[in-house]
Write a structure and sequence with these properties.
This protein is about 45% helix and about 20% strand. The chain has about 160 residues and is of the alpha/beta class. Strands 3-2-1-4-5 form a five-stranded parallel β-sheet, with helices on both faces. The model has no long low-confidence stretch (mean pLDDT about 95). It binds adenosine-5'-diphosphate. Adenosine-5'-diphosphate binds near residues 9, 16, 17 and 123.
């Protein structure tokens, strides 16, 4: 069985992430979407919310499992027999940090391969950070995230403002 893991912060999941998940699920028998805790990035959504949103968004894709991890990615892969890490490449700007991370992971564990996938070009400018910025200023993000996630973003940001 060909397994792959797609790790990230997914704060929140976007149509760009979903494009990569759809493409990867056509290649692999099982795709594990793994949400990193990443407290240093100060996520807007809690781990529970991020997992719930991803599960809702991938419901119709099939062959996709959603998990969280807070240890080293490579350790998670070893413990769960996952030989492939999927990362999305949007633009040249992603390349340097992704290249560095892939090489470091290779150094830590030579048997695990990183596979880079490009989204459809219409998603190549999308990032969770930008979506949060637009939504926080009242802009519409319906073209960039599933409708139920747009609603969750609005509620969350409204609550933040009220605090
Ligand atoms: P991280 O904090 O690990 O970068 P993200 O959730 O921002 O987590 O991204 C997870 C992965 O998805 C990364 O490989 C990132 O490059 C990729 N990605 C993010 N947005 C897009 C997009 N619009 N199209 C394709 N890949 C994307």
């Amino acid at each position: 069985m060909r397994k792959a893991i797609y790790p990230g912060s997914f704060d929140p999941i976007t149509n760009g992430h979903l494009d990569i998940i759809t493409r990867a699920s056509r290649i692999f028998d099982e795709l594990i979407v793994a949400v990193a805790q990443n407290e240093e990035k100060k996520p807007l959504f809690t781990m529970r919310e991020r997992l719930e949103m991803i599960r809702g968004a991938v419901r119709d894709i099939g062959k996709v499992k959603v998990v969280h991890f807070n240890n080293l990615l490579i350790d998670y892969c070893r413990a769960n027999d996952i030989p492939v890490v999927i990362r999305g490449l949007r633009a040249i700007s992603d390349f340097e940090s992704e290249f560095q991370m892939a090489l470091m992971n290779k150094k830590l564990c030579d048997e695990i391969e990183t596979v880079f996938m490009m989204p459809n070009e219409s998603y190549s400018y999308l990032s969770s950070r930008m979506i949060k910025e637009i939504a926080s200023m009242g802009g519409a993000v319906s073209a960039f995230v599933p409708t139920f996630i747009e609603k969750k973003l609005k509620t969350k940001l409204l609550r933040r403002k009220e605090r």
